[in-house]
Amino acid sequence: MHLRPRRNRRTPAIRSLVRETVLSPADFILPLFLHEDEVDVPIASMPGVTRWSLAGLVREAGEAHALGVPAVVLFPKIDDALKSSDAAECYHSEGLVPRAIRALKAAHPTLCVITDVALDPYNSDGHDGLVERDAAGELQILNDETVEILCRQALCHARAGADIVSPSDMMDGRVAALRHALDREGFQQVSILSYSAKYASAYYGPFRGALDSAPKEGDKKTYQMDPANAREAIREVLLDEAEGADMVMVKPAGPYLDIIARVREVTTLPVAAYQVSGEYLMIESAAAAGWLDAKAVALESLTGIKRAGADMILTYYAKRAAAWLA
Ligand code: PBG
Questions:
Q1: What are phi and psi of 314, to 5 degrees?
Q2: Distance CA 93, CA 103 (A)
Q3: The CATH number of the domain where 255 resides is what?
């Protein structure tokens, strides 16, 4: 036989020479949950993930950063008493998120701090946007009114020192509005990482349990994308690019590798992918039952996401994977 592909797989040294995709801690963004309490609490719906106090958050972020993880993204659990139908707590300058940003930047100046821009943790209705009931009694998620609140939220995060704001709400026109609002206040250096192709996914279930942020009524299908659609993801990405996004995101990641690959082809912007709570838990629960090797499967799934075209990956494995790769 003249052609033997196996020659390129013969030794670890040769395999490392021909490897096309190399995972690095520098690829990871660590999602961190936080709350008002002074204690760090394991999250029941997400085994292995913690809801941090401010002190715990600063410690955990520092440990991940020391392992080479460049960035964290913050998800607050807001006390029920502070939730309202206008989600006003989301732009309170002394709110949980701005205080966390200041604490993180003070303790770890080189850490990139990313914030989630969406109303669901603050909204008593649990939706990412403001809710109104129309004449027929149907819930409507108000687009333009929501975008105004999102701008106030992003400005609140920018004033506290966020490096990147990350709109996950899927309202139309929010990237242009955020860019305009940030620039007008002098925050030209604050980046926008847009959740451009965010699908209405059942894989978010454990996350909503973690934040107690599930919609009280209805679902998110009038703003998040239909899992059946791929061309629409391209449309969303191109719009966000035109509106001034610095980076775009596909979410979830594992079940949407084709979308990541297609997005990679149509934009020169960096592409992020979010390995969401349900993806994480499918691996963790199988590993807990002794059915899978968590380390091997997690690294393989992260490699697959990078191979598909992601430049960066939001993953609950960020800190552990960084330690495994060290
Ligand atoms: C909400 C938001 C969600 C996630 C990130 N930001 C949930 C949702 O859209 O309902 C999900 C992340 C995960 O499942 O890990 N703006």
A1: -85, 120
A2: 14
A3: 3.20.20.70
The band of 211, judged by pLDDT with boundaries at 50, 70 and 90, is: confident
Residue 260 included in any domain: yes
Within-domain flag for 14: no
Q: How many domains are contained in the chain?
A: 1
* Pocket flag, ligand 1, residue 118 (CB < 6 Å): yes
Q: Please list the alpha-helical segments (H only) found in 44-95.
A: 54-66
CA distances, 39 to each of 44, 64, 76, 231 (Å): 15, 19, 14, 45
- Kindly state if the Cβ of 243 falls inside 6 Å of ligand 1: no
Q: Pick from 54, 51, 64: which is nearest to 25 by CA? A: 64
Ligand 1 touching residue 208 (CB < 6 A): yes
Mean pLDDT in the chain?
Answer: 97
Q: Which of 109-113, 137-141, 322-326 has the weakest average pLDDT?
A: 137-141
- 39 in a structural domain: yes
Lowest-confidence region among 100-109, 128-137, 272-281, 304-313: 128-137
Domain range spanning residue 120? 21-325
Residue 320: name the closest of 293, 304, 291, 298 by CA: 298
What is the DSSP track for 107-152?
H-TTSEEEEEE-STTTBTT--SSEEEE-TTS-EEEEHHHHHHHHHH
Question: Of 198, 220, 306, 319, which is the active-site residue?
Answer: 198
In a domain, 276, yes or no: yes
> Which residue among the candidates 77, 83, 220, 251 is catalytic per the annotation?
251
- Band the pLDDT of 270: cuts 50, 70, 90: very high
- Cβ atoms of 33 and 43 within 8 Å: the answer is yes
pLDDT of residue 210: 85
Tens-digit pLDDT profile for residues 123-145 = 999 999 999 999 998 899 999 99
